[in-house]
Amino acid sequence: MTCKLLLLDIDGTLRPDGCSTIPAENVAAIKAVQKLGVKVAIATGRSRAGVLPEMLAGLRPDAWLCAGGAQLADAKTGEFSVHRLTPEEMYALVDFFEDYDLPLRFSFHDANYAYIGYDEFKRVEKELKLDNHIVDGEDQEQHLVEMPFGAFGMMPQSLEPAFAEKYGYLDLDIVHCSPDNPSCDILQDGVNKGTGLLELAEHFGIGLSETVAVGDGDNDIPMLQAACIGIAMGSGSQNAKAAAAVVGPDAAPHGVADICRQLWPEAF
Length: 268
What we know:
CATH superfamily of the largest domain: HAD superfamily/HAD-like
Order of helices and strands: EHEHEEEHEEHEEHEEHEHEHEH
Helix content: 25-40%
Radius of gyration: 18 Å
CATH class of the largest domain: Alpha Beta
Largest sheet: 8 strands, mixed
Oligomer: single chain
């Protein structure tokens, strides 16, 4: 096939649930595709600081679509597009999450700062073998250095109407990982992995007809729909699979490698 840009989600896609790093088979397959001249971009809800080198296991992407589309970077030339929460948006989130005593963290250049519920974040990270480079930000001062790209919280969907009633005028997008999961990305309206894909394609001078996106969660839906070919992992959410053009193999043990072999057999 003719493809010049491949976007890959990390958690639940490149890194199957339960794995602390990206499987070697996935890394090797992606490197083979890159040798064909395909640009490979990491597309994740994690901030760039939350993607630690040891997790990548030697993978060297050509570009980064981080913080759910709010932080875009070329591996060679650095950041070229950044979207940040405003003070009003950030204060509204802190106010609401404090009222309900819910964990909330913000993504910055150097780390993810847990303004509320640091201990809960670390517990979940350990349980799920994640490492998002979360530091204790209970003093709530990091935004005085720079405003964050976005937020990640643990808010039951049942509370969304209450948030909308109080702060709906801000038009923040709250995207849950799955319908029954309280974990959610919180970004400015219009900032998502789909718009990030458009920005990346424009940056590299690549047409949408030459793009492929692979993901597994509800926050991947915008890029699955924006790409010429959107592929949802078979182990992904029902919403992601319904939105994708193709349902691929399960993420485990190395579903991304299987996808690469199917799309680019000449690389192997």
